[in-house]
Write a structure and sequence with these properties.
With 304 residues, this protein is α+β, with helices and mostly antiparallel strands. It contains ten helices and eight strands.
């Protein structure tokens, strides 16, 4: 019997020890879910704050200063400044000369990328087809690349002529020496134009490529005045193009429609091509709900 009691006492001790160990292990586990939930809630608040900034600025193309944003969104300036600087450094926001923050090219591109697989090509398709049929030349639809330094072709209607210009979808074109590039480049905000002009490698690709910064500025002024970009042999010798910008709801140039063909044929009908291409860009802009700078959202002139 003593052996029996000893065995029983030892078993009870082992059971108590196991219960104690389980209890000890369970205590930290009860606090971890609460800590994780708190951290998760904080992360959600931070994410929501970031989205509020983007959504607010997307609705106000005029931009807002740090102080004004802080008042409108009820967010401390210290917290808001970190968000704004990060977005500005990465190109999703731009800070204008008056200190106001507005959507930058990358934020706009995200919206266009979403539309580029659905809305934009479908909306632009009739205009591209009409351009090709009227001109007899290949018509392209392009959007700004991720870094806003190039145009990317996302759709096309090829010419039916035996000798024609062609390019694959996804191909890129420089801003400074192509018709689609100049059409978008010209209508970017001035600060963004100057930043890009300072950062781009202005390489002479043909004998007619313009690489002087002041000469490029003059070309961009002409594009803004006429609403179209005409490029003769500037990218490929023997090939020329005419392009018009497509604007979004914030009056930013986010895409372009272009006709490209052999130089002799483009020059022969230049005036008609200019009118057709400009009309196509305006039609796609209206279909997207966008409007050109200096016009209201309904297409009428602004009162400013």
């Amino acid at each position: 019997m003593p052996a029996r009691r000893g065995w029983s006492t030892g078993a009870r001790a082992r059971r108590r020890a196991r219960r104690t160990m389980r209890s000890a292990r369970s205590k930290p586990q009860r606090s971890r879910p609460r800590a994780a939930a708190s951290a998760e809630a904080a992360a959600h608040r931070g994410t929501a704050r970031v989205l509020r900034v983007l959504e607010f600025l997307a609705q106000h193309s005029e931009g807002f200063t740090l102080s004004a944003l802080s008042r409108e969104l009820h967010v401390p300036k210290s917290s808001l400044l970190a968000i704004l600087r990060t977005f500005a450094d990465r190109g999703y926001l731009e800070q204008r000369a008056n200190g106001a923050y507005a959507l930058g090219s990358k934020a706009v591109e995200l919206g266009i990328r979403s539309a580029s697989s659905h809305e934009l090509p479908a909306v632009a398709a009739p205009a591209l087809l009409d351009l090709m049929q009227k001109s007899g030349e290949t018509a392209f639809l392009g959007v700004l690349a991720h870094d806003a330094s190039e145009i990317v072709y996302i759709d096309k209607v090829e010419s039916r002529q035996k000798i024609r210009y062609s390019a694959s979808l996804g191909e890129r074109r420089p801003l400074y020496c192509t018709a689609p590039g100049l059409a978008v480049f010209a209508f970017l905000p001035e600060a963004e134009r100057e930043r890009l002009l300072a950062s781009l490698r202005l390489v002479p690709l043909t004998k007619r490529t313009v690489t002087d910064s002041n000469a490029i500025r003059a070309r961009l002024d002409e594009v803004r005045r006429t609403g179209v970009a005409v490029n003769i042999d500037g990218f490929i010798a023997g090939a020329s193009g005419i392009a018009a910008p497509i604007f979004d709801r914030q009056s930013r140039p986010v895409a372009t429609c272009t006709v490209v063909g052999p130089t002799a044929r483009i020059i022969a009908q230049k005036d008609r091509l200019v009118a057709w291409v400009k009309a196509a860009g305006e039609a796609v802009t209206r279909s997207l709900g966008g409007y050109q700078p200096g016009q209201g959202a309904t297409g009428g002139h602004s009162a400013r």
